[in-house]
Amino acid sequence: MADGPVSIDTADTDELAEAEGVTDASADRATGVRSRAEGGIVAQLRLDHPDLFLQPTLRNAPDVSVEPDYWTTVEPDRTFVFLTVQGTAFEGFETALETDPTVTDPVLVDRYPDRRVYRVTLTDRATTFVAETARVGGRLLELSAARDGWLVQLRFPDRERLVAFNDVCRERDISVTVDHLRISDDDDDGVVALTDKQQELLAVAHEEGYFDVPRGISQDELADRLDVSKSAVSQRLRRAIGELCTSTLS
């Protein structure tokens, strides 16, 4: 829906709701389980805050791609987060971790030729948003890191809950910009559509011969062409190809 990053406002969600008739529907059901599965809004958002989880590391180690695998609370005040890090600049990433006030006790738990897996512990300084998403009725679909913030895809059952999430972020001084908004409907079959940026990247990569043998363009050149980081190109390609495989092979 959006041509570029813009702030969420009620007009955005009003337009979506009026176009598709989205409501918080709970249709007549044979069981007592409430349903929020009909319709809804999928939002791709960019979140930014100086103390957002891992943000200091992302700013100081831009040459790697970081994806959270999962997190778990092992004690009331201790939460582990496992991260997959791809790239080659692992030493710089580890150095940045050691001075990041949002995490502590970083541990390398797995090593592969092209990636490493780390475990970090959240500190009281870390600003997070996953629990807040659930509290307002949203669901996390995708989460990836960028130097200028976290890129998230969230599904909300209606526009009111999307606005509620934005209000919570505003109260916590988390900057929210919109990359993409779309209606979730029965035709989705659980597959999240490609974002505008993913479509643009795939189009350019195909036109310039990225998928040819030998390749006509490298990821570095794609990054320069689109004016984004190499890690952003790597993440978008992987997610876009994954979505295409899911939609065609499932």
Automatic annotation (TrEMBL):
This protein's record includes keyword Membrane: no
Coiled coil segments of this chain: none
Domain named HTH cro/C1-type: residues: 215-235
InterPro entries on file: BAT_GAF/HTH-assoc (IPR031803), Cro/C1-type_HTH (IPR001387), HTH_bacterioopsin (IPR007050), RNA_pol_sigma_r3/r4-like (IPR013324), WH-like_DNA-bd_sf (IPR036388)
Entry keywords, A to Z: Transcription, Transcription regulation
SUPFAM superfamilies for the chain: Sigma3 and sigma4 domains of RNA polymerase sigma factors
UniProt xrefs under PANTHER family: DIMETHYL SULFOXIDE REDUCTASE TRANSCRIPTIONAL ACTIVATOR
Protein name: Predicted DNA binding protein, contains HTH domain
